[in-house]
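Narrative progress, year one. The postdoctoral researcher (J.K.) led the effort to move from monomer predictions toward full complexes, under supervision of the PI. The following entry was the first complex the group processed end to end, covering 926 residues in total.
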Amino acid sequence: MSNPQKRSAVGHSVEKVDAFKLARGEAVFTDDYRPAGMLWAKVLRSPHAHARIIKVDTSRALALAGVVDVIWHADVKAIPHTRAGQSHPEPSPYDTVILPHKARFIGDRVAVVAAESLTIAERALELINVEYEELPAVLDMDDALTRTDVLVHEQPDPQGIGGGGRDNLAARIDKQVGDVDAALQGCDLVVERQYHLPRVQASHIEPHISMAWVDVDRRLIVRTSTQVPFHLRRILARILEKSEAEIRVIKPRVGGGFGDKQEMVVEDLVSVLALRTGRPVRLEFTREEELIAARYRHPQRITMTTGVMKDGTIVANRMHVLADTGAYGSHALTVQGNTGQKVLPMYPAANIHFQVECVYTNNPNSGAFRGYGAPQGCFALESHIDEVARELGMDRLELRQKNHIRLGDTDPLSAKLGEGKEGLVRVIRSTGLEEAIALGCEAIGWGNKQEPTAPHLKRGLGMALAMQGSGIAGVDWGAATVKLNDDGSVNLAVGATDIGQGSDTVLAQMCAEELGIPVAKVLVLSSDTDLTPFDVGAYASSTTYVSGGAVVKAATKVREQLAAVLGSAWACDPAAVVFADGGADGPAGQHMTMAEVALYALYEAKIQPMATASHMSNESPPPFAAQFADVEVDPETGQVFLRKIVSAVDCGTPVHPRLVEGQIEGAVAQALGYALFEEVLLDRTGKVLNPNFLDYKIASALDIPPLVTILVETDEPSGPHGAKAAGEVPIDGPAPAIVNAICDAVGVRMYRIPATHERVWRGIKEATQ
Amino acid sequence: VKVELELNGRATAWDIAPGANLLSVLREMGQFSVKLGCETGDCGSCTVLLEGEPVNACVVAAARAHGQRVTTLEGLLGDPLMQSLQREFVAKAGVQCGYCTPGMLISLYAHFKSGGGGDDPELREALTGNLCRCTGYVKPLEAAAAVATDTEQGGAS
């Protein structure tokens, strides 16, 4: 590992390796390549929340000029699987088939058309006649939990479902450290509250899009906007009854994912149609489809029960989560597991009880979304800490400082809760939390609240603490290949999946650092299942920490190969050769540029300096965040004005400080929508009421208050160059910080978000009656 | 429908389906900087200049371009103001996934071309039609402010 003082690439905000071509609008995304003879696919979706698909008459659609194929469940083999892009064997239930016999939500797949143009495909949908047998639907979480007469999934179709197909449970967790019930008896104060979390959508601006074709070697090529190319290849092979050798998945630039592309959302359909028609097939979601048929952050109802002593010691903490996975259970167990696992360890009480009931309903699907359950849990816990402090008559900052996790502490819950199975013990080996709290307090003016900007407004401050992970301990792994070229440049091939967050750049920096070359000399290729080694993909805040470890190892091996070559060329100890500033130096003053080293290795020593390395970590060191909100509330209208959001984040060594800041700023922007205005609304039949960006509002430039972003540097011993993760942790704290600030301003607790004008106004009204 | 227009400074003729929107036609014609994000005029990823004014190409009928000047990012790659915007977006790490970037660049280009200034509220107003889910707008706004400073000092455009 290099000396931090002398790092040439890591820690510097170098030019993002793909930035210029993106700023030139070059043809780099999935849809920017259109193979000759391409067909356009469209999905016919169910108008019923729950209905058997008895028969689909495709004859009129097929008779339309330009329609090439129409498929429904009679045309494809039903092989149960999960669309969740997770390591094999996936901890999500196998409750899904390509085209179902039963529609399970309004918007479920019924039939798919492939046609010569989009217009023809759309027209063909109207010509398909479907015979449905409508079934009673279950749309409410409590109903789903108690009713056994309406089952979203019944045996024998699905496999691996929590309730075995006898009830609507998709997943259940019940894990305890200590004995919460007994401990609560001895507490000075017990506070119990319920918190309600909405259904929100990732809303990457590039919709889900895939295209597939069969090449001259009869192999299926899938070009797709995905976070998980290798999982996708494996799942496709299984459900298409092919071998992985017959499938190649190519990930071009991706226009945002945020978890929503950690899922096979459209790839199976284009694959089936390409294989059937022998033609390239393209399928892209409309924004409406994104909002009804992609994935949501799970709506949850969380009950917190906390027992404390008069001095503020938290003795017992119970979190009960009721969650709605919707029609299918992708990520049902693991997202809900994270709600507690990533959140409760912040206050490591001796007694912790974590319970989950995640139910199927006939609502559209939940799934992975940045934070992966932690934003829900963090909202409940950090709102609740303020409530406990208020009842205790203790300062809310002091209560947090008294109880939060510290260096050397063990996180007892992570051992009980792995990724759907027993996990590994986690000890905190780096934390900048205390410094983050101090710096954040200073930046927001904690304890020194400013006057309202107008006499009719009320001002408030709020804070929240958050922690996440860096990959999934003992599960996530990735590999990297480094190869030296004649001119001293290197190819870096990684399965790690750049989806816009900048992983190609961060990994190139680590490679450049080990070889002592400029980042511009690293040519990154990510990701192509034929050309790059394996990686689990872009999720769980794993890439910098896990895949970065693989890059460091592979580049180190290449450096050692070069040192051995130069050691014999210069008749010196290879360990005495130093690589820096784009060249190599020997102990007796010998020097070669990297191009000269490469020419010597290739044409004199006749070796290809090249190495592949894999990396996995049995640890998942948490990044920490202390986040603060300064708000004003108009009590007459319930309107909340954000004045400032401060995020102080410890992500270990920031490999690329400006990209880390960008991760934090983007996460805060998403989180303030979660706090104040984002919610997918369903009517009483389970139909989405606001499937467009006008009615489902995400933050625009005018919604963002001044953001103060502070990087608190620590050195994580298990991380590459001391790095931890940064992508998810900053999305956790803003919502509870904002709601705590609202409470500080007007004395009203918003137990339900988003805290819309109307909800805040009603809350104030009820409190004053 | 026959449409004759000036695309990026060149006389162009299209033969298009009657209902086609400008976004889909421009992409068919290889103008891949024009991105599809919502097709309802809400996200701004398909922002182009129609007679020099920024419009969402997804809600403009392609036929409306008849006799008009249409400019996409491809047509501005040699323009000094656009080049300085691109340079600052890259330098300030204002590009994350890059999908909404061309639309933001066109909106800011139109803002500065029409004499718009570099104050934060003005720049936010200029970007309000462009939704970005990655950046929180902070770095794109920094980039825009840097271009405004350069422009005031006579460095660009």
